[in-house]
Every structure is written in structure tokens, then in C-alpha cells.
Amino acid sequence: MIPPYRRPTTLARVNASVSYRRILTLAVSAVLLALFVYLGLTVQAPYVAFGPGPTVNTLDTVKIADGKGPDGKEKLKSVPVVDITGVPTDRTDGHLNLTTVSVTDGLSLFDALSMWASRRYALAPRESQYPPGQSTDQVRKQNAAQMTGSELTAQAAALRQINRPTKLVIAGVGKNAPAAGALRVDDEVRAVAGTPVATVEQMQAAVRKHKPGDVADIDIVRNGQPQRVPVTLGKVDGKDGSGNDVSMTYLGVTPAVVNADPALKINMNVGDIGGPSAGLMLSLAIVDRLTPGSLTGGKFIAGTGTISDEGKVGPIGGITHKMEAAREEGATVFLVPAGNCREALTDVPDGLTLVKVESLAGAISALNATTVGKPAPSCAK
């Protein structure tokens, strides 16, 4: 006989319902977890990560690309970071390391979270490093151009510091600039409207003493011949130091201070490093090579800072990352631009002494004091 149908008891129905909900909850959770993992691994976060980057001893050598070998692999060769020829140089010791910040792009959401949690890296909006409308290749080229400019300025500052001959020249003329047709690339500039000039800052100040529309006589040397060239000054809109819109008098040229000793040749090789912040350390390396005695006293010195052709040291970004990288490499003294001291004091690695610098001359004086155990300017004061 077929037993009569009996409806499930209330308890059985409840158990079945609970089991169904558990299975459904597990299935939904698994799908959500899989989706979360997929998005975390594949979706690019709108951030870049800044962290400690490579350091380079400016008194040593660096490996650079040297074409490809018979096997098709890229060859490397060692070259001096600061290569000086044509004049006697002095022996150096110790370290004068330039420092860098690493920039990691293309972060997944998980990468960004992991780097943020490590506290070794700092996240920043990607547009702070790669502005909208600019490709990564364009940014790389801009950074390389900044390094090239920094190298030239570092030479100028060092040579002026040790009284080697330099000259102020026209490195570029704007296409539609007031000076177009009057001044040429490689013209040596001696004076602007009767005011002697020998540096970029002096030339800019001399131009801005005048009003747009004024005619300024520019004293130059062209092909060995002194000349006086009149230029009607123009006007350009810009921003002052406070970010306010201003109109400025301009000449429309790019001046530069360059070596004026035909025997002296200086070439710099920093590898794949961009930006302007290596200026101070490159200048110190040139001074150390071209003057008697040791700037380091055999110590491991590292540092950072932009530099002008007048030897003024300017602030940079990523100071705490640079200090961390320097200490990991073995540095015991770090040269900090005065404008970065407050930030630097927020995270000083153990065993690293911070020395405040405002100029190339000041940095040399501080190193001379440090090498003999005397007090040097400190960020803490």
C-alpha cells in the first residue's frame, strides 16, 4: 500500500528554509568575494605610490646602456657620474650621494591598499605626477629635460663657487619673442641697459627694472666681437611668488651660465634619473674634484636640493623618502634644504644627522665642519 501523504512538520519546514538561506547566502558571498578579488586585481587605482628611490654616489661610477651585444642583449658600461677632463683633478673619498624618490604607477586597488598599509609608501592622486592630457612618455621627457638643466646649473654654481671662468650666454630665443631677430643662441651677454650681468638671476632682474615697450640696449659678444643690440621689451602674463596674476616685462630668451674654460670638460652621467633635485650634490662633486682636500672626510654623506647658478639651494619633494633611502644605503649625514627642514623633522631615520643648507657655500662650510667633528647648521635649530 502507498502510505498516505503527510505534510512536513513545522520544524522540518523551518530546517529546510534555514538550509536554503544558508546555501543562498554562501553562494551570494562567494560571487561577491570573487567580484571583489577580480576588481581588486584588475581595476587601476587613480593613485601613484611614492617611496624611497635609488641613491647614486656622485664621486663614483654608474652603469649606463652601451648598445647591444652579439647575443642581442643590452650591454652596460661603467662611467664616472661626474667626468672631468682637461684640467688636474684631486682625489676623492667617501660618498656624496644624490637621492631620489621612486614613483610606482599602474597600481591595482590591492596594490594601493598594500602600499598604503606598509607605511613605506605614500599615495597621491595620479594627476599630481601625470597631468591630464600628458602621456607618461611626455612626463618622462620633461623630467629628463629638468635633469639636463639641473646638470648645467650645477656646473655653473660649482665653477662660480671656486672662481673658475664662466660666461652668461643665450641658450634659446623664443620664436615670436621681443628678442627674436636681435639676439642669437650662443651670444654672450655682458650687460642689460648698462647694468652688468653675469648670472641668470641678474639678467632677469635687470630686464624687470624696465617697463614693457622700453628699449633696452643689450651688450653682447658675438663671434668674438663686442656689440650693442637694442631690443624693445615685451609683456608677459604670469604669477608672482604668492600665486597672484601679474604682468611682467620680458626679453623672450633663455639665458644660461656656462663654463668659459675651453680646456675644462665636464660631463655628467646619472643614469635613468629625472628632475631638478640632484643639483646640490652634483655641484658638491665638481667642487670636491676641482679643489684640494676632501669634502667628505671619508664619511657617507647624502643629500638633495635644487641649485641656482648663484649657488642658492631650493626645496624639493619627497624629503622623508629620500632620507630613508640614504640611511638604508649607509649614510650618516644628510644635507637638507632649509625649506624642507620642518617636513624632514617629522620622520628622521635613526642614525642620520640632518644638516640644514641654504647655499652651496653653506653646504661646503657645513661639510668642512662635519668632517672635523665641529657643529654644523641643524634642522632642529
TrEMBL record:
It holds the Pfam family Lon_C. GO terms for biological process: protein catabolic process; proteolysis. Residues 237-370 form the Lon proteolytic domain. The keyword Plastid does not apply. The chain crosses the membrane at residues 23-41. SMART domains: PDZ (SM00228). The active site is at S277, K322. Keywords: Hydrolase, Membrane, Protease, Serine protease, Transmembrane, Transmembrane helix. Its EC number is 3.4.21.53. GO terms for molecular function: ATP binding; ATP-dependent peptidase activity; serine-type endopeptidase activity. It catalyses: Hydrolysis of proteins in presence of ATP. The keyword Cell division does not apply. It comes from the Bacteria. Belongs to the peptidase S16 family. This is endopeptidase La. The lineage of its organism: Bacteria, Bacillati, Actinomycetota, Actinomycetes, Mycobacteriales.
